[in-house]
């Protein structure tokens, strides 16, 4: 699979498995899973054929590990980032004392006024390292990294969950737990 097709396929799978399963004529179950054979048949029926080998390649080489197979390999889902209602079954986990969030500087006033909100997604996404946060922020403009006082949030009763691909998830981050990383 050439690089261009790999990127196109990964973006298409993200859209289907996180946001619009109907584009492939599939329905995600309550946990976000869809059978691989149904997904591949749906894609083929809509003029976007993908083989199982190509799907395996997309899953294995995605640098953000966005997708995962069920233990039996018969189903696939996105690891996080859904705008459709799914329950990934992630349990509350104590995070590192500090987490990070990447954004663009044009969003700072609203963030420091309202905090971090999931917007269209189910959760706020946080990272354990500044490099990842910087990369996320750069997708939206000039990147700014915010520090999240996860220890204080945990002490105050906020819950965090860790996705299969290492993204920390929480419902929201109130402004009092945020600071701009210098």
Task: Characterise this structure.
The chain is an alpha+beta fold and 182 residues long. The chain has 2 domains: 3-78, Orthogonal Bundle (Arc Repressor Mutant, subunit A), CATH 1.10.10.970; 98-180, ADP-ribosylation fold (Alpha-Beta Barrel), CATH 3.20.170. 32% of the residues lie in helices and 19% in strands. The chain contains 6 helices and 9 strands; from the N terminus they run αβααβββαβαβαβββ. Helix 1 crosses helix 3. The relative contact order is 0.15. The mean pLDDT is 94.
CATH class of the largest domain: Alpha Beta
Unreliable parts: none
Number of strands: 9
What share of residues is helical?
Answer: 25-40%
Shape label? elongated
Main sheet strand line-up: 1-3-2
Mean of residue pLDDT? 94
Instruction: Quote the CATH topology of the largest domain.
Output: ADP-ribosylation fold
| Secondary-structure arrangement, i.e. CATH architecture of the largest domain | Alpha-Beta Barrel
Q: Please, how many helices?
A: 6
The assembly state of the depicted protein chains is: single chain
How many domains?
2
Structural class determined from secondary elements: alpha+beta
Largest sheet: 3 strands, antiparallel
Tell me the span between the first and last alpha carbons: 41 Å
SSE sequence, one letter per element: HEHHEEEHEHEHEEE
Strand content: 15-25%
Kindly provide the radius of gyration, computed on alpha-carbon positions and rounded to a whole number of angstroms. 17 Å
Pfam families: PTS_2-RNA (PF01885)
Function: Removes the 2'-phosphate from RNA via an intermediate in which the phosphate is ADP-ribosylated by NAD followed by a presumed transesterification to release the RNA and generate ADP-ribose 1''-2''-cyclic phosphate (APPR>P). May function as an ADP-ribosylase.
EC number: 2.7.1.-
Organism: Kitasatospora xanthocidica
